[in-house]
Structures are given as C-alpha cells and as structure tokens.
Amino acid sequence: MKKNALLTVLLIIQGVLAFLVLTGGRELQRHAEMHRLIEFNREQLNGIHIQDNEGNVVELNRVDGVWLTADQFPVDAGQVDRLLEHLNQLQHGLAVAHSASAAKRFEVSEHQYQRRLQLLQENAPVAHLYLGSGAGARRSYVRLAGQAAIYSASIGAYDLSANISDWQDKELLQLEIDAIQSVQIGDWVVRKSSADINAAEDLSESSAALDVASIWIAQGLVAGERFKAEDFAAQLRNLATLRYTCGRSGAIEHAAVLAAEIVVDCADRSRTYRFYKLADRQEFQLKVSDREEIFELSESTVKPIIQGLTRQTLVETPGPADVEGAAMEASQPEKSD
Known about the structure:
Distance between the termini: 124 Å
Strand order of the largest sheet: 12-11-10-15-16-17-18-14
Order of helices and strands: HEEEEHEHEEEEEEHEEHEEEEEHHEH
Radius of gyration: 32 Å
Structural class: alpha+beta
C-alpha cells in the first residue's frame, strides 16, 4: 500500500517536471528565435510609401531633412518618427504559414493585402512588406516581399494609414497667442494694450495671474457700450490654435460663399483668414494669405470662431432703460458743497 502510494507520488512529480521542462524549453526556444522583422537605417531613408487595398496611396518624401507629402505639403514629423521607431522594433518568431493560399487567406499576397509598405533609401526600396488581417490584440499577419514565410507581428493597419490627411501637420496654421498685436474684423479693430502688457510683465510669479482678456481694447466704442474682452480672448485662442481636417492644392470651390474675413497682425507677420461655406456640405474651406494651399475644416470648428468674433457678439450695447438712466443722471444739476 505504502509502496503504491510512493510510486504514485513519484509519477506525479515526474509528470510535473516533464511539463516544466517541456514548456520552459518551448519558451526559451520562442525567445531564441525572435528576429527583427525589417532592417533599415532611419537616418538614410528618404521615402515612405503606403498603399491600402482600395488603391489609396501615401507618399512621404524627405527633402533636405524635412518630411513632405508628394505635393510638398508639410508632414507631422513626430508621427513619422513614431512610425519608424515602431518599425525598427518589430520582431517575429516562427512562421505561421508559407503557402500562396495562406498568403491570400491572411491578406498578405501581392494582390490582396490590408497595407503595402515600402521604405526607400535613395529612392530604392530597402524594406518592403505586406500587412494583412489581424492576428490577435494589436497584432497582424505580415509577409516580406519576395519571401513565402508569413509571420505575426505587433503592428496594425491603423499604424499605416493610407489617408494622406492623417499624415499632414495639423498645427501648420497655429500662431503664438502672445505674438498677436491686433485683430481686424471687417472695419472693426481690437488691439492689444501696451500699458497692460507692461503691467503683466511687472507681476511676480507668486501674484495672481492677470486676466488675458484685460489686455485687449476694442476701438470705436460709443458711450455705454461694453467690450466682452473675455469672450474675445477665448475665441481668439480658438483661432490661433486652429487645426484643419485636410490641406490640398488648388482653389476654393466655385459655389463656396465667403462667410467671414479676419485679419490678424502679429509681431512678425500679418495673416488674413477667409472662411468659405460650402453650399452642399456641412464643411468650410479656408484660404490664408501667407500660404498657397486650401484647408478644409469642419463646421463645428469654424462656427464658434466666425460667430464669436463679431462686433455684434462681442460688444454689449446699453438697453433703453440704461440709456434713459444715463441721460437723467447727466441732466441733474451738480450739487454744491
């Protein structure tokens, strides 16, 4: 009885040890066989080409150290850096398949893929891969061009957008709010008060922050009118930090109607914004005087700005009771001491 129990315990221990050795060996084998998916020198790259299965193509080119789209539009350099860093760290283990039928099934064949990526050096591909369907959480099947092996790697189609607007520098139109000196809306002008600027510079860091709105003065106000400086400062900040949806070459659409014109003078430049409303869509187009491109913007981005930056919105006029009260007060004789 005791002998049988001892044999049973020994068999259990042997089974556990065998399991640990087997799984540990597989784990070691898996780590030992991890390899970099693609090899490239990011400093020598001068092109990135991305294409999806619908024929959309993104071509990014580095010219004099600056990344541009094919039509010379500025690219978000930080986004390119993040992509190249991600690609540089990609690794793969054992191949999951090798056949042509598997390449079609996993969407990594030459004619059926989710994305095709080429990294170029001196305009020649130094890395070329096909990215296919998902292979798990934040993973996809990939295949290097010219090879049959299909791997699983930690990259998704969302990392390789084939929509050119996703790569454009959306901060291209932004201005430093502190550099703005005046804003002209039609024939109405709001200027920064140099006296209040000097007062702001004299404040110590421990003092309460000066209300930004207090440095703006509206010209041409009549008696009783009050300038809503805080509202103006808020909408001016929206204009200065404007982000567009897409930029393109060409001209404003023929049917578009001018909705607003705003001139902003800064310490080093002057820019005229002309916002056009598209007749058939809930969108706007923008032309700025210091760039050649046309910028497309959503209605939700533009409307608060063009409706908020108007004299009618920003100037509070006195009501009839206020006017009558002011007139009566002015008509009262001065009291003698």
